[in-house]
Amino acid sequence: MNDILKLNAVEASAAMQKGDTSSVELTKAYLAAADATAALNNYVTLCEDKALEMAQQSDKRRADGRVRPLEGLPIGVKDLFCTSGVETTACSDILRGFVPTYESTVTEKLWAAGGVMLGKLNCDEFAMGSANETSVFGPAVNPWSAANGSELAAGGSSGGSASAVAAGSALLATGTDTGGSIRQPAAFCGVVGMKPTYGRCSRWGIVAFASSLDQAGPFTRTVEDSALMFQAMAGHDPKDSTSANLPVPDLTAAMAKGVKGLKIGIPSEYVMDGMDPAITALWETGQSWLKDAGAELVPISLPYTKYALPTYYIIAPAEASSNLARYDGVRYGQRITEGGSLDEMYEATRAAGFGDEVKRRIMIGTYALSAGYYDAYYLKAQQVRQLIRQDFETAFQTVNAILTPATPSAAFPLGEKQDDPVTMYLNDVFTVPANLAGIPGISVPAGFSESGLPLGLQVLSGAFCEDTLYQVARCLELQAGLSSEPPRHASAGL
């Protein structure tokens, strides 16, 4: 492997500034790595010509002294972000052939900061999944493999993003997190994945799943890289009515403070029956690290978080059933013209275009919103959501941040849980509460399972307190001291 690929984003920026490399050289190396790791199926579209053109423009700006925060850094984009002139499918048949004429606000910000677009990354269809197995392009594969050599799930829905960053075929990547779709795959693949506060990053131009839960965030190799990318992505957008008009904190200054004097909440409800003992041990180790660094550990209770999963799986499908009603074969994407009526065209298009998991969630959501069941399910779920939010608000009156496991287990073999939706949904048990409450969370690689697979710790902080989030995350990263790369999958070509 080319040594240039071992540089993290901060290091790559420094190398380009010193003249040791260029954006064109860096971009060519990542494009070659994407080709070499094609068996991992983490890219659905590779934009070689566009990437090299953007890299050349970046090198010209650097030569002219016009250096931006992400100048020349190659970035992969989850196929949920609309990208002007590049097909955007949400990894669904129903959007095959859709080429946006506009750019999502988040990707527009990344390109304005100097980033270089490598291509579009695999994800679960319409972000509905926890293993990246519902994609019409097939599953993204984790660059880590099981002891017996079997392929592992990269996690979902942003599995392609996590896989690409872990495999070294993207330096940075975008993801979206509706119920854990950044933090869970990050933990599975041994990278850093961050979900901002709801409203911190614009949702404009991102294909919607559940509008009150969706939030864009970065995938990176290090916490410092994550802070760099997040600051470029975040900020107010008048095109998004839910976008918060608040300043983005100085995360570099925050990370330099350390955690001395901070109070870290340890929620009793996150101790679960059947949890992997390695997860429990890592959680305890993480607590020791923070204590040794000067933080105070405070036992807390989040009593309503036990209802988070059923609450989420009512609200999210309900919003999805409404959002996905627009895909009917009329304006864009696939159209099946069977029968003579408009209703028959709608039915045929949606039956052919949507996969099984998307259909399942649309049906659940339609049922929850139907007459006679709205009050019993959707309205009740919204009431419980408010109680979950209040749990966190109460906790953050006494603590600065909360430490939890990121996932209940390490990555599992592909296909192992696909036939049991409920078991698959349980993978989100530690991540979903943050989405319901609208607070930020980050998964930091912190250790390994007994079989040598990566495990992550999750840090949560109060709404719009990403500075505290990164303070704690950086401390965990330094204490963990991980520098290992995944043993490359045999079929990946590396």
Which descriptors would you attach to this protein?
disordered C terminus, 494 residues, Amidase signature (AS) enzymes, alpha/beta
Would you give an account of this structure?
By secondary structure, the chain is an alpha/beta fold. It has one domain (3-264, 396-492): Amidase signature (AS) enzymes (Alpha-Beta Complex). The chain has 16 helices and 13 strands. It has helices at 9-18, 23-36, 48-63, 105-112, 159-167, 183-189, 223-233, 251-256, 277-292, 308-323, 342-353, 356-369, 374-395, 421-425, 432-437, 466-480; strands spanning 43-46, 74-78, 116-121, 141-145, 151-153, 172-176, 192-195, 216-220, 263-267, 296-300, 401-405, 441-448, 454-461. An eleven-stranded mixed β-sheet has the order 1-3-2-6-8-7-12-13-11-9-10, with helices on both faces. Residues 489-494 have low confidence and may be disordered.
